[in-house]
Amino acid sequence: MQIRLDKFLADAGIGTRSEVKNLIKRKAVTINGVCVAKPERKITPDADEIAVNGTTVAARGFVTYMLHKPAGYVCAVKDDRFPTVMELVPQNRDLFPVGRLDKDTEGLLLITNDGGMAHRMLSPRRHVDKTYLAVLDRPAEKAYIDSFSVGVEIGDDTPTLPARLVICDGGSPELAYLPEKYCACADAGRVALLTIQEGRYHQVKRMFHAVGSEVIYLKRLTFGTLVLPMSLKKGEAIRVEAL
Ligand code: URA
């Protein structure tokens, strides 16, 4: 796996991305003994020897998986009652789930040992988009779009941040993710895509509840720039480039 030199150095704890860019520009960094001036240079961490001011930098060995979480698994490292998502990825290297999906929610979940990345993806200040496909118990009303776009009261101290709702019609490509048993719901206007930038407890279910609908099926399709691949089956995980 190849990664950018500046990302490798930042992940290895040498400094922030801009600090390591400065180091590279000041010609303090070598790849296999040769000085490099380009932060975007690609390196192979397992094969190349990277040094800063003559001292070799060890990779921290971060690993991140994208899991297609099936319903029935809890997002915890350990649980006494239910199977955990950790059973679905290789068991090593201090992995943990990046945030939580409810036990009955399916879809894109990251599992990593990279605490910095997890923090960046989850930080409320970074407003990382997450898109969910939701099947409702009744047709979604157009008024929900406006309510969600300004934020709704869901019983917390503050209303939700503005969120984007799209009510699916028969032509929505995201319907390809819908389990067959819910296909008729799309024709009935009961399937919607909701993009939120927060990660409050049961947030999507509570937002629909606040406007008068209940979520009967929920799947996360995207997280930041990542999209759940159609080819990734439920319960399968793939490694993703560090984010
Ligand atoms: N919102 C929910 O209500 N549940 C999830 O699992 C994720 C977001």
Précis, in short:
With 243 residues, the chain is of the alpha+beta class. It has helices at residues 5-11, 17-25, 115-122, 142-150, 183-187, 203-211; strands spanning 3-4, 29-31, 34-35, 42-43, 50-52, 55-56, 64-69, 96-97, 106-112, 130-136, 164-167, 191-196, 215-223, 226-227, 237-239. Strands 7, 8, 9, 10, 11, 12, 13, 14 and 15 form a nine-stranded mixed sheet that branches.
The average pLDDT score comes to 93
3D shape: elongated
| C-alpha end-to-end distance | 13 Å
Listing every helix as H and every strand as E from the N terminus to the C terminus, the arrangement reads: EHHEEEEEEEEHEHEHEHEEE
Count of distinct strands: 15
Strand content: 15-25%
Question: Helix share of residues?
Answer: 10-25%
User: Which class best fits the helix and strand makeup?
Assistant: alpha+beta
Q: Enumerate how many helices there are, as a single number.
A: 6
The oligomeric state is single chain
Spell out the blueprint of helices and strands:
Elements: E1 3-4, H1 5-11, H2 17-25, E2 29-31, E3 34-35, E4 42-43, E5 50-52, E6 55-56, E7 64-69, E8 96-97, E9 106-112, H3 115-122, E10 130-136, H4 142-150, E11 164-167, H5 183-187, E12 191-196, H6 203-211, E13 215-223, E14 226-227, E15 237-239
Parallel strand pairs: 9-13
Antiparallel strand pairs: 1-4, 2-3, 2-5, 5-6, 7-9, 7-15, 8-9, 10-12, 10-13, 11-12, 13-14
Helix pairs in contact: 1-2
The structure holds uracil.
